[in-house]
Amino acid sequence: MFVDFHSLAPALECVVERAPALQPAAPSTAVASRRKRTLDLAIAGLALILFLPLLLLVAAAIRAEGSGPVLFRQQRTGLHGKPFWIFKFRTMRPEPETPELRQASRHDARVTRVGRVLRKLSLDELPQLLNVLRGEMSLVGPRPHALRHDDQWGPLVPGYADRFRVRPGLTGLAQVRGWRGEVHDDDALLRRIASDNEYVEAWTFWGDVTLLVRTVPLVLSDPRAY
Question: Do 80 and 164 contact (CB within 8 A), yes or no?
Fold first, then answer.
């Protein structure tokens, strides 16, 4: 049976104090790892330099397609349950704010032509390299959800807040296993959170390296990217 998540909690744009269900346990050893942070800084910094022409090309394409900002900003939940502003290339037409926070779906009419290409190749996520450099995200970790989704899903899934024991990532164990994108039902949500928490509990430096390598072919071809 699919749960109507949107009816379970009021829509909140900002969260001053997170609910008890969203308070994480003690930090994971990943947070204190110098090797993990060094890997984040090295790859994110190098990638921004190498991809600079591509970033400028994407920005120009978004600007040429229509009005609206090049970058999309949204508050997401980060380390220790603290909100931060995530950066993405804008892939949807600007729309007024609504109480209901809709996830992107396959054939979503809000997605622009340029945005559809960016989402298919995950190029819309490249600005999050800035979040990595700022220490708000890591290359590998649980993908951050919108605040309202965390507030709605947190009370429903045991151990949901344990995923906040590490910095959120550009990619993660759940994504490599195919649990990314739109949440269609309870099972998809439970499997995603279970994979996130498995990553937190079993973290190793070389595990991160392995996940990065496994992510590369998904960037080129992933049926769940839309």
Answer: yes
In the numeric block, the tokens 């994480």 are attached to 24
Tell me if 2 is assigned to some domain.
no
Burial pattern 24-63, b for ≥16 Cβ within 10 A else e, equals: beeebebbebeebbebbeeebeebbeeeeeebeebeebbe
- Note whether residue 201 is domain-resident: yes
Pairwise CA distance, residues 32 & 16, whole Å: 26
Q: Does any domain span residue 166?
A: yes
**10-residue block means of pLDDT along the chain (226 residues)?**
39 38 62 92 97 96 89 94 96 70 68 90 94 97 93 91 95 91 83 95 95 90 60
Overall number of domains in the chain: 1
The domain in which residue 206 lies consists of 25-220
Distance from chain centroid for Cα 16: 21
Interatomic CA distance for residues 24 and 28, integer angstroms: 10
pLDDT at 181 (0 to 100):
74
Q: Is residue 45 part of a domain?
A: yes
- What is the residue-wise DSSP string for 191-202? HHHHHHHHHHHT
